C-alpha cells in the first residue's frame, strides 16, 4: 500500500515546522516566498494535494479555525502560542489544517456580530484561553460550526471545554508546602480574574482547611478586568514562609522581586506553583510545580472537535486533564 503523505513529512523535507506547512497550505501569511514555493512544490511532488481530501482513517480532511486573544500572544514566552503549536501538530497527524486568528482587544470588546476567517472555509473552531463571554457567544452564534474551548470554561455555555484540573492541582501544590512544614502560605493570584485562577484559589483554600490551617491570605497579581493581562504586585514588608503561585509568569516575577530584596529561595522563602512552562530561572532554580501535559491537552482538544464535526459527540461538558507534582529545589522542609 502506498504510504500516506502527511504535513509532517512535508515539514521534515522542507526543514520547517508543521505549523508553517499548515499555515502555507491554508493560505495564511507569515512565511517567505521561498519557503511557500518550496512547500507547494513538495506538496505537489508528493501527491499531497491530490490525496488531501482523505485522512488516515478514510475520512475527510478538516480545517480548524483557532482563536487566541492578542494579549496572550504578546506575552513572552507565550503559553497559549505553545498550546497552539501542540494543537497544530496534533491536527497535522490527522492531515487537518489549523488556521490561526489573533483577536485584538477592540474586536473582543465589540457587541456586534463578527465575521471570522473571511478567506477560508472552516469546519470547527478552537478558542484557546479565556476571552470575553459576549465575544464567545457571538462566535458561537455566527460561526455555525462546532466550537471547543481550551484551557478555560464557562458553566453557562452549551459547548465543550478542555481544561487543566486547576482545583486539584493547586490543592496538591499547596499540600506539598504543608507536608514540608509550612503553615504561613500566601496564594499569589487574582481569583476573580479568570475561572481557572478562581479554581486554583479554591484548591489552595481546601488544602489549608483540611490541614486545620484557618488563616488564608492572598496577593493579587493582576486586575480583575477580563482584558487585563499585565502581571504586577507589591510584596508585603513581612514576608510569609511560603508562596503558592497561580501560574509561572507570576512565579517568575515573584522570584525577581525576592532577589531584589536579597531574599534567598528556598532558605528564606519557599515557592510552589501551578504549571511548568518556563525553562530557565536564575541561580539554577527549578520551581516545584503541578505540571500539565500540554500534548495531552492538545490531543483531547483535537479529538473532541473532530467528534463534534462528525456528529459523534455526546452531551456537552468539561473535560479535565490531570497533572503531576514535579519536584524542584524551591521548597525547603521545616519543622512543624
Automatic annotation (TrEMBL):
The keyword Ion transport does not apply. Keywords: DNA-binding, Transcription, Transcription regulation. One of its GO terms (molecular function) is transcription cis-regulatory region binding. The keyword rRNA processing does not apply. Residues 5-59 form the HTH lacI-type domain. It comes from the Bacteria. Pfam families: LacI (PF00356), Peripla_BP_3 (PF13377). InterPro entries: HTH_LacI, LacI/GalR-like_sensor, Lambda_DNA-bd_dom_sf, Peripla_BP_I. PANTHER family: HTH-TYPE TRANSCRIPTIONAL REGULATOR GALS (PTHR30146:SF109), LACI-RELATED TRANSCRIPTIONAL REPRESSOR (PTHR30146). This is LacI family transcriptional regulator. It comes from Lacrimispora xylanisolvens.
Amino acid at each position: 500500500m502506498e504510504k500516506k503523505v502527511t504535513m509532517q513529512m512535508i515539514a521534515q523535507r522542507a526543514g520547517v515546522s508543521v505549523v508553517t506547512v499548515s499555515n502555507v497550505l491554508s493560505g495564511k501569511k507569515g512565511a517567505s516566498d521561498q519557503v511557500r514555493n518550496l512547500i507547494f512544490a513538495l506538496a505537489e511532488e508528493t501527491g499531497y494535494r491530490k490525496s488531501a481530501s482523505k485522512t488516515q482513517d478514510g475520512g475527510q480532511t478538516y480545517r480548524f479555525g483557532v482563536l487566541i486573544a492578542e494579549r496572550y500572544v504578546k506575552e513572552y514566552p507565550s503559553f497559549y502560542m505553545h498550546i497552539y503549536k501542540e494543537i497544530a501538530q496534533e491536527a497535522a497527524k490527522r492531515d487537518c489544517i489549523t488556521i490561526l486568528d489573533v483577536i485584538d482587544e477592540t474586536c473582543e470588546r465589540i457587541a456586534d456580530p463578527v465575521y471570522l476567517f473571511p478567506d477560508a472555509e472552516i469546519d470547527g473552531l478552537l478558542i484557546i484561553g479565556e476571552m470575553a463571554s459576549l465575544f464567545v457567544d457571538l462566535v458561537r452564534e455566527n460561526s455555525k460550526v462546532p466550537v471547543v474551548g481550551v484551557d478555560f470554561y464557562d458553566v453557562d455555555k452549551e459547548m465543550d471545554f478542555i481544561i487543566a484540573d486547576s482545583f486539584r492541582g493547586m490543592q496538591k501544590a499547596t499540600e506539598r508546602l504543608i507536608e514540608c512544614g509550612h503553615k504561613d502560605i500566601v496564594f499569589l493570584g487574582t481569583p476573580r480574574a479568570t475561572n481557572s485562577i478562581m479554581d486554583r484559589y479554591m484548591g489552595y483554600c481546601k488544602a489549608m482547611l483540611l490541614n486545620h490551617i484557618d488563616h488564608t491570605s492572598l496577593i493579587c497579581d493582576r486586575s480583575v478586568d477580563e482584558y487585563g493581562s499585565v502581571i504586577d504586585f507589591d510584596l508585603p514588608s513581612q514576608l510569609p514562609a511560603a508562596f503558592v503561585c497561580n501560574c509561572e509568569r507570576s512565579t517568575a516575577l515573584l522570584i525577581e522581586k525576592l532577589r531584589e530584596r536579597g531574599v534567598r529561595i528556598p532558605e528564606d522563602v519557599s515557592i510552589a506553583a501551578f504549571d511548568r512552562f518556563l525553562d530557565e530561572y536564575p541561580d539554577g532554580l527549578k520551581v516545584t510545580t503541578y505540571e500539565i501535559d500540554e500534548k495531552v491537552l492538545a490531543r483531547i482538544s483535537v479529538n473532541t472537535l473532530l467528534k463534534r464535526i462528525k456528529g459523534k459527540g455526546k452531551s456537552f461538558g468539561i473535560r479535565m486533564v490531570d497533572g503531576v507534582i514535579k519536584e524542584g529545589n524551591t521548597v525547603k522542609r521545616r519543622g512543624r
